[in-house]
């Protein structure tokens, strides 16, 4: 992890998991520039994840997984992000889905059995819920994707945006409005189904390597069993969303490490020593170190408590708070790295500019800052 590894790696299992994540991180980093340039989630990257059985690692042992708890998973996610943030964020959505259905039991046993069995074969899943006219699903917009019951099948039509790893998915969990029942529901769609296509629309500033293209559904027929009925169980706070700040923390850590290497090696002819010896650069590195340490303690202390405490429903505000704190700290760390690198940080020769673009995406991942501030304000005023 860089700073104080021994503080966060509590036992031999975590040490071994972290070593594996380090190998994944190193290998996916080799593809990061190409993925960023092409705005695709690459086959090479997916092969690395499958080689280490990473697509099933959080599943119970009964399904061939290693039954990672939240703390262990975030340790690995942060390290993967250090190699490539886009890879970590992408696979985080897949593994987060598995973490949610494992922890909450909100889906029926048959749904869980199907998803877990397929994921154990290293099949790739992701939700597809965002749409062009509804914005973020967290804002509450009703999907314009429509599911209509025709005899013994549902027929689905619509378009989903921000479908991460769209070209590589085996299954998409799609939200759709059912006009006959006047409700929103979920459908599990095999990406090989007739009528399913990908529109390569992904051309963004940052996180280009996620390949988050549009998913287009035209008269896609779905058997009744793939209409995902939920249990009536109360949903827990979505702690698995902490993979988001873990990702941006990993990007910030990568920027910090490269800033150190740059500062030690760069010596303009106006100085008789590398810039690492200048007061201004040392101040920036010190601030970066403090921010990383603060964010890491916030994130992993909350993950530990989630794993240990029974009253998880009380942690919702803290989960949101940690996301906002860590992603904003990561912004500052990468900004400071760019300031140390100066104009050279803008060059494609270095990774700084990719870190700078990728870390910005954290501001647009849920929960958004303004929503969290409003929630905390309401809590304070109510008290």
UniProtKB/TrEMBL annotation:
Which family, according to UniProt? Belongs to the acyl-CoA dehydrogenase family.
Acyl-CoA dehydrogenase/oxidase C-terminal domain residues: 245-361
Provide the cofactor list for this protein.
FAD
Q: Which SUPFAM superfamilies match?
A: Acyl-CoA dehydrogenase C-terminal domain-like (SSF47203), Acyl-CoA dehydrogenase NM domain-like (SSF56645)
Which residues, if any, are the signal sequence?
none
Acyl-CoA dehydrogenase/oxidase N-terminal domain location: 14-101
Is Flavoprotein one of the keywords?
yes
- One Pfam match, by short name? Acyl-CoA_dh_N
Provide this UniProt record's keywords sorted from A to Z: FAD, Flavoprotein, Oxidoreductase
Q: Which residues form the Acyl-CoA oxidase/dehydrogenase middle domain?
A: 128-220
Question: Which protein, by its recorded name, is this?
Answer: Alkylation response protein AidB-like acyl-CoA dehydrogenase
């Amino acid at each position: 992890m860089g700073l104080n590894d021994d503080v966060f790696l509590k036992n031999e299992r975590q040490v071994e998991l972290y070593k594996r994540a380090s190998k994944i991180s190193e290998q996916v980093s080799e593809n990061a520039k190409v993925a960023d340039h092409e705005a695709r989630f690459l086959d090479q990257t997916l092969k690395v994840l499958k080689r280490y059985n990473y697509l099933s690692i959080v599943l119970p042992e009964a399904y061939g997984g290693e039954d990672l708890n939240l703390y262990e998973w975030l340790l690995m996610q942060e390290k993967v992000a250090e190699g490539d943030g886009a890879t970590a964020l992408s696979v985080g959505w897949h593994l987060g889905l598995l973490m949610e259905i494992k922890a909450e039991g909100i889906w029926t046993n048959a749904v869980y059995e199907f998803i877990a069995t397929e994921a154990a074969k290293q099949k790739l899943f992701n939700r597809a819920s965002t749409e062009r006219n509804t914005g973020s699903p967290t804002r509450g917009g009703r999907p314009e994707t429509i599911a209509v019951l025709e005899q013994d099948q549902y027929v689905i039509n619509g378009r989903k945006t921000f479908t991460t790893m769209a070209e590589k998915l085996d299954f998409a969990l799609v939200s759709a409005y059912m006009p006959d029942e006047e409700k929103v529901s979920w459908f599990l769609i095999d990406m090989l189904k007739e009528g399913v296509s990908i529109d390569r629309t992904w051309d963004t500033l940052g996180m280009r390597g996620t390949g988050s293209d549009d998913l287009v559904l035209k008269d896609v027929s779905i058997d009744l069993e793939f209409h995902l009925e939920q249990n009536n169980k109360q949903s827990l706070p979505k702690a698995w969303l902490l993979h988001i700040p873990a990702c941006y923390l990993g990007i910030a850590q990568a920027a910090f490490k490269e800033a150190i290497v740059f500062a030690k090696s760069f010596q303009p002819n106006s100085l008789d020593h590398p810039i690492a010896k200048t007061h201004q650069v040392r101040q920036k590195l010190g601030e970066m170190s403090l921010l990383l340490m603060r964010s890491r303690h916030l994130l992993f202390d909350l993950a530990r408590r989630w794993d240990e405490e029974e009253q998880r429903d009380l942690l919702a505000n803290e989960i949101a708070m940690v996301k906002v704190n860590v992603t904003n700290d990561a912004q500052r760390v990468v900004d400071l790295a760019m300031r140390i690198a100066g104009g050279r940080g803008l060059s494609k020769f270095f990774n700084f500019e990719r870190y700078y673009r990728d870390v910005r995406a954290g501001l647009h991942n849920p929960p958004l800052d303004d929503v969290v501030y409003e929630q905390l304000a309401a809590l304070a005023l109510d008290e």
